Hints:
The chain is an alpha+beta fold. The chain has 29 helices and 6 strands. The strands form 2 sheets. A 4-stranded antiparallel β-sheet has the order 4-5-3-6, sandwiched between helices. A two-stranded antiparallel ribbon has the order 1-2. Helix 6 (107-125) runs parallel beside helix 11 (226-245), helix 22 (440-450) runs parallel beside helix 24 and helix 24 (472-485) runs parallel beside helix 26 (503-512).
Amino acid sequence: MGSQPDLRRLMGRMGVKMEVKREHFLQAALEIGQAGENDTLPSDVDAAFIKDKSKELSEICFTLFKFVDDKPEKEAVAFMNELTVGSERLLAPSRSHGFRITTKIHPFWNLYLNGLGLAIAQANEGNRSPRVHSYRLGGQNPEFFDRARSWRAYKEVTLEEKALQQEGCVVVQTDISSFYEHIYHHRLENVVKDLESKDSTVALQVNRILSKLAAGRSFGLPVGGQCARILAEVMMTPIDLSLSDAGIVWHRYVDDFTLICSSQQDAYKALSVLSHSLADYGLSLNRSKTTILSAKHYIDYIAAQLSGGEDASVALRELDLHFDPYSDMARGEYEQLKKSFDEIDIQFLLDLEKEKSQPDSFVLAQIGRALKFQEPAVAAQLCATLLDPKNLDSFRASWSKILRGVYSVRSNDEFKAVFDHIDQLLDDVLSTASHLLLPEANILHFLRAIRFKRTEVRGAFIRGVYDHTSSQSVKRACIDCWRYWRERASFTRLRNQWQNLGADEQRMLWLAAGNFGDDGAHARSQLRRSLGQVWRLGFESAGGATFASCYEDWAKDVA
Length: 559
């Protein structure tokens, strides 16, 4: 694996045109290996594959980019139109009563998009206003973004504005309606073109890939990946500039705006300017979420919002629980974070949340992250509260955070003493809250948590899910459970159906073969010749490394 490129060295300056480099794809591969492919879904084994084969895959990406970029525009468009960009649209919860679509992209194309996105972000960073607080470059390798530039930091900065002290000052809080879903590809393409040099095809390539991910529609970004975040920020850059040019005091975090105005009249003008600027790019404000507060009421409201209105939760809210187990200082960081909970009663805070009509999703997310820092008995009791049928419905908006936390405990041998208790809690979900497993994103998180041990109820459940779901991602997760359980009957059944499996299922079954001794080795020997054809990406040459050859080589050493 190559050395990690320095993101700060890659960052561009105002007026420097975009240049796509191998290092962008390498950085993207390493970031995927650390953070996963899609933050709305559980981490997939493909993320480890992308990381472990980062050097080879980034070379394939860069070769493809240069091949397309050297073509005249019409030929580049025709070539991109002929490619198959694999993806699947999955249902994920959004707040307590809503849903949204998230996109799981084929691992190669996710890597390719993220590499292009990093080059775009580099070219655009110097154009962005300091009043924008979301997804700023500058994270520690291999991260893209500066973690300190959070939503909380954004709100804290608004409180520091001197304009808030002026008599008559009012504050507008508003956001963009269905932001990612309404971004128009052609307008986005034009904004990206402004960043690239003459005859570059970056904007064209991104546009064609987005169109394929949107099933031919000309709008919408795929939720959950890093490139979508970058492209959304690029689209907003000229809109941000229009607010500054109009003399408005403003701050933004993704689609949330705070406008600080000298009077009600100026607030109306500021909203008009923002609405016009958004309309120029096919966007609009969410009228139901637009409020105007006096400066005093805004300050009091944000202070309460940041503390959650509960003094007991302040310490938990302020903890940075993004622990990196691969850090050189991992053990020391872990012990330091664990010690941080000496003065925080997590169970008390969780009990407060379960009494609320609308639990605080951020507090629940922090509790989920905190599980792995607790003593085993405490972690087990917290899991029991989180997975209690009486609580699960009210906590349903935080399902992914809860299951990530449960997984972090169940996958760690330091908690072996409570594994049986947690397994029983998970099995009980099947009989008491099966409705919460209907969205694909939810069941993917659940399958990841139960793959460590086979029980009778789990065996029947997964067989039923596999036979009835149409989702390739869910089928893959079922095969992954059978891989962990070394369930030979299921492996043999699917081996005999190889030609009828989707390419994503085949890759997981190929990986599973390594757990079935001679049977697995024999299956791989028989099927090896088909891999170059069934897993081909449609552009790779006969010589040199391919996606299929990289995966086959990587799978040899995966238990």
